[in-house]
Amino acid sequence: MFLPIAIIWLVVDIVTKNIANANAVGDTFGPSIPGILEFRLVHNTGGAWGILGDMTLLLGLVSVLICVVIAIFVFAYRDISPLAIISLALVFAGGLGNAIDRFEYGYVVDMISTIFIDFPVFNVADIGVTCGIVLFIISIIFSKDCIASDGDSGVGASSASGRIKGKGD
Predict the structure, then answer these.
(1) d(CA 25, CA 35)
(2) Half-sphere exposure (CA, 13 Å, Cβ side) for 116?
(3) Which pLDDT tens digit goes with each residue over 98-122?
(4) CB atoms within 10 A of CB 121
(5) Higher pLDDT, 2 or 44
């Protein structure tokens, strides 16, 4: 389930960025929802809200490192809930999509601009990362392994020994 979701989200991110890149920086394009959102091309060399401006290479490397850790986690451990797998696939695809931009262009292509609230311009990858993190937190909160039983705190315990079960366990 992880790979198909990650691939689909990454493809949607790449396609929307290619559509945005066909326009001039700062120009609005495509349909809009009056008073709610518009599509406007922005090149972001920093992170969210422009933090770490002009640190594109470092942010790209950190994104790749996080994607590697996510992939190792997903493929090394069993008993991961479907919600956690979906959430990690979204974070993986979003991180990889923005890392590709950083290495290919030297900036991230953003294009979704909210009108009703002062909020940074963002992209499909950002949606994946944000929603994926929220869904992952929800998956942890509602995980049966986080519910205390028989005097064990249960927090982080996936087996009697209190460690996460690996594929070799």
Answers:
(1) 21
(2) 6
(3) 999 999 999 999 999 999 999 999 9
(4) 20
(5) 2
To which H or E segment does residue 95 belong?
Answer: helix 82-105
Examine the residue annotation and report whether 101 is marked as an active-site residue of this protein: no
pTM of the entire predicted model: 0.82
CA distance linking residue 85 with residue 135, whole number of Å: 10
109 bridge partner residues: 43
Q: How many CA atoms lie within 13 A of 152 on its CB side?
A: 16
Q: What is the pLDDT confidence band of residue 21, given thresholds at 50, 70 and 90?
A: very high
CB atoms within 10 A of CB 74: 18
**What one-character-per-residue DSSP string does 9-77 give?**
HHHHHHHHHHHHHTS-TT-EEEEEETTTEEEEEEEESSSGGGTTTT-HHHHHHHHHHHHHHHHHHHHHB
Residue 62 pLDDT more than 70? yes
Name residue, tokens 């960025």. 17
Task: Please pick, among 13, 54, 101, 110, the residue that the annotation labels catalytic.
Answer: 110
Stretch 109-137: mean pLDDT: 96
Is position 110 annotated as part of the catalytic site?
yes
Exactly one of 101, 118, 126, 145 is catalytic; which is it?
A: 126
